[in-house]
Amino acid sequence: MKRTVITVVGKDTVGIIAKVCTYLANNNVNILDISQTIVQGFFNMMMIVDMSAAGKDFELLVEELEKLGAEIGVIIRAQREDIFDKMHRI
Amino acid sequence: MINMNEVIETNKMIEQENLDVRTITLGISLLDCADPNLDELNRKIYNKITTIAKNLVTVGNKIQKEYGIPVVNKRISVTPISLVGASACKTPEDYVTIAKTLDHAATVVGVNFIGGYSALVSKAMTTSDELLIKSIPLALSQTERVCSSVNVGSTKTGIDMNAVRLLGEIILETAERTKERDSIGCAKLVVFCNAPDDNPFMAGAFHGVTEGDAVINVGVSGPGVVKKALESVRDADFEVLCETIKKTAFKITRVGQLVAQEASRMLGIPFGIIDLSLAPTPAVGDSVAEILEEIGLERVGAPGTTAALALLNDQVKKGGVMASSYVGGLSGAFIPVSEDQEMINSVEVGALTLEKLEAMTCVCSVGLDMIAIPGDTKASTISGIIADEMAIGMINQKTTAVRIIPVIGKGVGERVEFGGLLGYAPVMSVNPFGCDSFIGRGGRIPAPIHSFKN
Fold this sequence. Notes:
The complex is a heterodimer.
Chain A: E1 3-11, H1 16-26, E2 30-39, E3 42-50, H2 58-72, E4 74-80, H3 82-88
Antiparallel strand pairs in A: 1-3, 1-4, 2-3
Helix pairs in contact in A: 1-2
Chain B: H1 4-16, E1 20-28, H2 38-52, H3 56-67, E2 71-78, H4 81-84, H5 92-109, E3 114-120, H6 127-142, E4 146-154, E5 158-160, H7 161-177, E6 189-193, E7 214-221, H8 223-231, H9 238-267, E8 271-275, H10 288-295, H11 305-323, H12 341-348, H13 354-360, E9 368-374, H14 379-396, E10 400-407, E11 415-417, E12 424-426, H15 436-440, E13 444-445
Parallel strand pairs in B: 1-2, 2-3, 3-4, 4-6, 7-8, 9-10
Antiparallel strand pairs in B: 1-7, 4-5, 5-13, 6-10, 11-12
Helix pairs in contact in B: 2-5, 3-9, 5-6, 6-7, 7-14, 8-9, 8-10, 9-11
């Protein structure tokens, strides 16, 4: 299973988590872990998800999440977890 | 499990500190394309490159999307063309047809540079080596993406001074043939001592004869990341400073290793090496000179510069080596003038001179890189500059190189625009005293005593 890290950063507003989670549920993406904080009015969320059962191509999911972020007014990124693992774990 | 701070740290490096994969370079052996018929040779070269490299750009873009890290350049290096074309090419113009084929193949597969229009003449030139070298000015003025290099010396063989003399003239002729564009042809020509077979960085990349049929080499880069990390240890001693550079280099290199393995897997081509180099770009905050200034220099070129660069280069290697299973290429800090905004600034305020740059090349990777000099510089003086740099490489058992641009029609203090990654450069002054008789001697400089290790 290749895990993916989704990060959401931006100005806090109503329904950010709901919208992101709805999108993920609609695309059959399973959420494994969520952490979230608000620092000085800025919303920071990190999700670790499993996209292996998703019906769409990884690149398409990345683009659609970016688009969803633009609609909500936040920046959404989806990246393979390996890049963080490799950099921070020996 | 990865925590949020780690994710934020990585993404900050990418978004704010210019961490990127500078190049995925696909090395392709063209040895099996050799053919006595020139047309047939060109056809085989074209077919081999466009077949093996057809997915290179797509894969690079896919990796960029999946990991969220920019893969800036996708490039190709090939077997030195003087070997491949030896039986077919009877004139310099014959070699130019191969340059055009390489250019065309590069355009078709979508890479911005293709390296390997090269000759390896560290002891002496064969007839075909000499023909290729003589074709360089024409080849670089009639192509866009072809990069050329000539290895004129090594610790094992000494320095071929005949080639050094010839290259002084070739560099001037290349400058002349591309004078409408600020002599840009010379930005794509590197003269080496101890050239590595697996360097992924242009313009000096070629696919060495010791390599396999095809290989993926990756160059990572992040001068901005190192600079940012050093801002947090401004008043600390050298131990802390070195630790910080090492840890940062480790992190940067791990990303390169990951990208290289992914590219290798997706393309079905073996992974070769990671090049650990800190490679600057003209972008603000992507400068090696800024790191040196962060270490404590008022300006690059000030006393202390060579020592600061030596420690930076060494710590980058120490941190990087542990992060990758195979390290190679040039691996060190690059100090190109035109590609580093703070280097340009230092030249313009008079802090950095050609002589200081030469001293700096003793302790870092590569050498006199992307330096603009007056267009009326004599060929023998250019050869003298090359000979000095080659001697540093030969005696210190390291790679050194010269990529120098005599800008036709321009003098000291004027500015030259190369555009894009190549940046712009102020024309630097060259020592006015000559070395004609030295360069005119001919022959070669013998290998140094410490090369006899058997």
